[in-house]
């Protein structure tokens, strides 16, 4: 394809719900020039701009890269993430510090601004396309989906102990065995895959005979989003799973995590559990997983999880049984765990 160097390039930048037309660029201009032009229009400094769908062979182009090499259509819409200096100055501590330092209830009612969602959906789509999932055990037809965090959810990763096994949350295997009857299980941790595999081996999860995990997701399946209160944070968007597997959706997926911000892209599907910390003090007291196992059983007959409010999971009472719930429960009397005293 031959490009006329004098061709004007028209680009539209979409940022924070508004569109900005960038004119007076030619194909011989560079990405750096484009960024300066965007700066003029939006006030976002070049080094703060993340031009999400501006790609050269799948990668972010260098500033020196000529616009002609990107082969953009006239009126191409660039989705930008970026923040104004004054917003950044207001943002609090870096995200790594949030889990332990900030009471994460603060984030409870924060929602992802509708205008940003499109940008994030593009990120999620990219994860759906590019993130490789290694299936450990095939999904089972008709099962719902349970997505589990590791740190402080299944395991106290900060306390010291003789063996890692001592840091396991009480009733972990009972919980997973019970959940497995109705749910496919996925583990999602904001760390590396190698670490997840090691941990699951250590806890005896990967080799357990009474339940199987469908797959693990690591930090690379997460996306970063901008929140007014915390700046840029990493979240776990369930859309990555829903995009890859037709059988899972917001109707049948529930996710447990001790950090609510991980749910920001899908707040209705997240249940914030109490963190398991100071294992040596709490090992004899912590019954969270038993209670959660019961909740998972109680809600399993709900046609659509969107009708549930997991914030009030402890107050949930199953609706009156209809014919098929009775039938289903009759088949589930095989275990002798007592979860009745857990509430
Ligand atoms: Mg955690």
From TrEMBL:
Catalytic activity from the UniProt record: O-phospho-L-seryl-[protein] + H2O = L-seryl-[protein] + phosphate; O-phospho-L-threonyl-[protein] + H2O = L-threonyl-[protein] + phosphate
SUPFAM superfamilies reported for this sequence: HAD-like, Ubiquitin-like
Cofactor(s) annotated in UniProt: Mg(2+)
UniProt feature, compositional bias: Basic and acidic residues: 327-343
Domain FCP1 homology: 139-299
Annotated GO CC locations: nucleus
Residues annotated as transmembrane: none
Enzyme Commission (EC) number: 3.1.3.16
Example GO BP: regulation of proteasome assembly
Bias (Basic residues): 317-326
UniProt keyword annotation of Nucleus present: yes
Keyword Hydrolase attributed: yes
Residue intervals of the Ubiquitin-like domain: 9-81
Region (Disordered): 316-343
GO MF term list: metal ion binding; protein serine/threonine phosphatase activity
InterPro entries referenced in this protein's UniProt entry, alphabetically: FCP1_dom (IPR004274), HAD-like_sf (IPR036412), HAD-SF_hydro_IIID (IPR011943), HAD_sf (IPR023214), Ubiquitin-like_dom (IPR000626), Ubiquitin-like_domsf (IPR029071), UBLCP1 (IPR051658)
NCBIfam families named in the record: HAD_IIID1
Listed name of the protein: Ubiquitin-like domain-containing CTD phosphatase 1
Protein source organism: Cryptotermes secundus
């Amino acid at each position: 394809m031959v490009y006329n160097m004098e061709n004007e390039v028209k680009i539209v930048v979409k940022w924070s719900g508004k569109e900005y037309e960038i004119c007076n660029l030619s194909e011989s201009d560079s990405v750096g020039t484009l960024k300066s032009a965007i700066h003029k229009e939006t006030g976002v400094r070049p080094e703060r701009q993340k031009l999400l769908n501006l790609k050269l062979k799948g990668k972010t182009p260098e500033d020196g890269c000529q616009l002609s090499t990107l082969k953009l259509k006239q009126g191409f819409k660039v989705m930008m993430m970026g923040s104004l200096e004054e917003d950044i100055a207001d943002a609090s501590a870096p995200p790594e510090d949030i889990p332990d330092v900030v009471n994460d209830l603060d984030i409870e009612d924060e929602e992802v601004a509708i205008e940003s969602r499109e940008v994030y959906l593009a990120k999620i789509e990219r994860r759906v396309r590019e993130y490789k999932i290694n299936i450990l055990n095939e999904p089972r037809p008709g099962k719902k989906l349970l997505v589990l965090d590791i740190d402080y959810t299944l395991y106290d990763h900060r306390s010291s102990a003789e063996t890692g096994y001592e840091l396991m949350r009480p009733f972990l295997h009972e919980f997973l065995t019970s959940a497995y009857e109705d749910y496919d299980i996925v583990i999602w941790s904001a760390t590396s895959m190698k670490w997840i595999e090691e941990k699951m081996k250590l806890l005896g999860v990967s080799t357990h005979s009474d339940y199987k995990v469908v797959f693990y997701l690591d930090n690379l399946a997460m996306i970063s989003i901008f929140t007014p209160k915390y700046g840029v944070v990493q979240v776990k968007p369930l859309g990555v799973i829903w995009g890859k597997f037709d059988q899972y959706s917001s109707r049948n997926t529930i996710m447990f995590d001790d950090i609510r911000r991980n749910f920001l892209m899908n707040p209705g599907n997240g249940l914030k559990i109490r963190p398991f910390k100071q294992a040596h003090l709490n090992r004899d007291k912590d019954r969270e997983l038993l209670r959660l196992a019961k909740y998972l059983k109680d809600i399993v007959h709900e046609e659509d999880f969107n009708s549930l409010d997991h914030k009030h999971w402890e107050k949930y009472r199953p609706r009156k049984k209809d014919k098929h719930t009775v039938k289903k429960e009759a088949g589930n009397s095989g275990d002798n765990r007592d979860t009745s005293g857990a509430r």
